[in-house]
Amino acid sequence: MTKFDYENFAKDCLHGKLPPCSAACPLNLDVRAFAEQLQAGNFTAAYKILRNKVVFPAIVCRVCSQLCRSRCVRGGHDEAISLRMLELASVRFTDSDEPLRFNLPKKNKRIAVIGGGLAGLTCALRLGARCYDVTLYERSGRVGGRLWDMLDPGVFLPEIERQMQYVRCNIELNREINSLEDIEFDAAYIATGKGGEHFGLLDGIDEKSFGTVRPGVFIGGGVLGAAPVEDIAQASVVAHSIEKYVKIGRMDGMPESFMITETKLKKDLSNVSPEAAVKPHQGAAYDRDEAVAEAKRCLRCNCTECKEGCELFSYFSKPPQLMVAEAITTLSSKSGLTRQHSTRTMSSCNLCGLCGKVCPQGIDMGSFFFDFRHFKFEDKVYPPAFHDFFIRDMLFSNSAAAVFRLAPGHTAARYMFFPGCQLGASDPRYVTRSYEYLLEIFPDTAIMIGCCGAPADWGADRELNDSVIAGIKEKWDSFGRPAIIFSCPTCQLQLQKFLHEANGISLYEVMAEKGLPGGKTEPGRKSMCVFDPCASRNNVSMQRSVRRMAYMSGANIEELQFHGEKAQCCGWGGHIAKANRNLEERIVQNRINASENPYITYCTNCRDTFVREGKECVHILDIVFGLNGGGFAPPSLGTRRKNRLIARNMLLEHVFGETSEEIKEDGFSMKIVISPHMVKKLNSSLILEEEVAAAIEHCESTGCKLYDPEKNCYIGHFKMGIITYWVEYGKNEDKYILLNSYSHRMEILEENRL
């Protein structure tokens, strides 16, 4: 698909579509908006919403047949909303019932409306308000039609006069039209009521626009058997149809004005407590408090499944349709501001696909944003700084920290352990213990440590990702194409995507089937929740195996609301931190607050992210190998790189009997002191300790620095790759003390120094 094939990507989104009650209403009243205003006690605002849709609110609230009640989702749960009584309350308690007045230029098109009932009056008002030359013909001596048989004229006549007071309309009473040739018009509406004159035009009526076979003539209302509220609904449609006809001569009407009778929108009531309808204490009408209370029973049905599952939609306060439209527009936009906004939106997506899983229409905005990241990358407008850190981290993992070996004493392999790059970064023992366990069960298990390419894939660099996958495939081929044992759900998902010919299974499935190793801890039937990584969402076997392992180890598992096939991202996915740190932090807080129970997970990114924010959480390998108790502190970014080297050396020395390179303590050429507080800030800013050290060394060796006497510190910057790093530091004898650091993607162009 090309970028322009996505215009209709979210067209089936149900967000904002009519709820069942509105679809049942012939006028398609926006019940959501109406109820929202009443819930807040805003009777005037509610009245305006009602009036703009129903034309004559003081009449409709008394003659409405309440079809909405039959479709109200609460009807089968407790009691349907008393909407007509709420409409009456808005009419009674509005601060102003003054109709709108538009200062529009007069139009020279003549509109004839035949019939002075609700249908004719509505059409005349709609077109007269738009300054068409409207003449209404009523054969009797009074307007109102069947309303005289339904209501007190003291109610409906003042309402008609009030709503039509600013309308350009000439009403001719006692004028019966026996032939359309008797009057002059550019367009006409026949609204003669039940049993009224139809001028032989009942055959061939357009059911949507209400156009007849005679050009310019439309028909509707009681003459077609409509109920009072349907009179208004059909006349409103006809007003739009007439306007289209007099402009371009077409009789097919305006689709956006057509009556909607069906909706796919549904509401889950599983978490809704039954609540009886409010009964008025005095008379048949609500007082203000009663109206507000009844309005609050309205659930304002809407589809918010994606919003409830993922914070992206609430953060940007935009539905999928708008996000798609903005993304497509910005691809060809020359506005840097617009392009940046859209890019940040798509770069804030975890790409986990949960929205597509929970969406009743299957709209996966994750796949959309993934593709559009690639489109922008191809157009050279996708900011490389968003993914620079993660890609450099991947390159480190696939070079200095990489290991690929056949099992000792073997020339081929049935299995290959692929722990990925993050497992050993969190704790090298995860890799070594797991591999030793596998060698005991499958002695010919090979090992390949490196990154699966996810950073390049999420960063939209297809060429780089292909290179990583090609490197993995080359080594895998050299091992004889063994089955791959994964410990990282993301690695397994990525290689399933790009290395189709490879068969894979998770480490946890092996452990659940073959038995746990010795040295496991006993949680003592402690209640815990398994946090399923988003990449495991479609891997039911992996999810079940982890739960089985946890149970075998003594844990009592309680499920989170979002688990299994609805697993949520911990915030790490898609590498959104650089593009939207605030959203990432919101996601993390929501995940750790989902339950008071401690978590078990099987993704080190999830575990380290949660523990860093104070959540009690263990990796399943902590339990089975007896590692990392309650005092575990996630390693810093620099330590994570060091841990990868430690994992490599431990394997080479203890498993393969090879000599490994010595790992320097910090790798700095000068003594640099970084406090725990600053380490936390560096981690949050995705700045390595070695990058800070390089910046300080550059400042000291070149003299390119400023001295701040108030803070008694030096300030300088150093550009490495595409990122410029700033440091504020002090001196204490032979030590350099880091006080602050930050980075950005701007290049500072300086004049040549004298």
TrEMBL record:
<dbReference type="Pfam" id="PF02754">
    <property type="entry name" value="CCG"/>
</dbReference>
<dbReference type="GO" id="GO:0004159">
    <property type="term" value="F:dihydropyrimidine dehydrogenase (NAD+) activity"/>
</dbReference>
<dbReference type="Pfam" id="PF13534">
    <property type="entry name" value="Fer4_17"/>
</dbReference>
<dbReference type="GO" id="GO:0051539">
    <property type="term" value="F:4 iron, 4 sulfur cluster binding"/>
</dbReference>
<dbReference type="Pfam" id="PF13450">
    <property type="entry name" value="NAD_binding_8"/>
</dbReference>
<dbReference type="InterPro" id="IPR028261">
    <property type="entry name" value="DPD_II"/>
</dbReference>
<protein>
    <submittedName>
        <fullName>NAD-dependent dihydropyrimidine dehydrogenase subunit PreT</fullName>
        <ecNumber>1.3.1.1</ecNumber>
    </submittedName>
</protein>
<dbReference type="GO" id="GO:0005886">
    <property type="term" value="C:plasma membrane"/>
</dbReference>
<keyword id="KW-0479">Metal-binding</keyword>
<dbReference type="InterPro" id="IPR009051">
    <property type="entry name" value="Helical_ferredxn"/>
</dbReference>
<dbReference type="Pfam" id="PF14691">
    <property type="entry name" value="Fer4_20"/>
</dbReference>
<dbReference type="InterPro" id="IPR017896">
    <property type="entry name" value="4Fe4S_Fe-S-bd"/>
</dbReference>
<feature type="domain" description="4Fe-4S ferredoxin-type">
    <location>
        <begin position="340"/>
        <end position="368"/>
    </location>
</feature>
<dbReference type="InterPro" id="IPR004017">
    <property type="entry name" value="Cys_rich_dom"/>
</dbReference>
<dbReference type="GO" id="GO:0046872">
    <property type="term" value="F:metal ion binding"/>
</dbReference>
<keyword id="KW-0004">4Fe-4S</keyword>
<keyword id="KW-0411">Iron-sulfur</keyword>
<dbReference type="InterPro" id="IPR017900">
    <property type="entry name" value="4Fe4S_Fe_S_CS"/>
</dbReference>
<dbReference type="InterPro" id="IPR036188">
    <property type="entry name" value="FAD/NAD-bd_sf"/>
</dbReference>
<keyword id="KW-0408">Iron</keyword>
<dbReference type="InterPro" id="IPR051460">
    <property type="entry name" value="HdrC_iron-sulfur_subunit"/>
</dbReference>
<keyword id="KW-0560">Oxidoreductase</keyword>
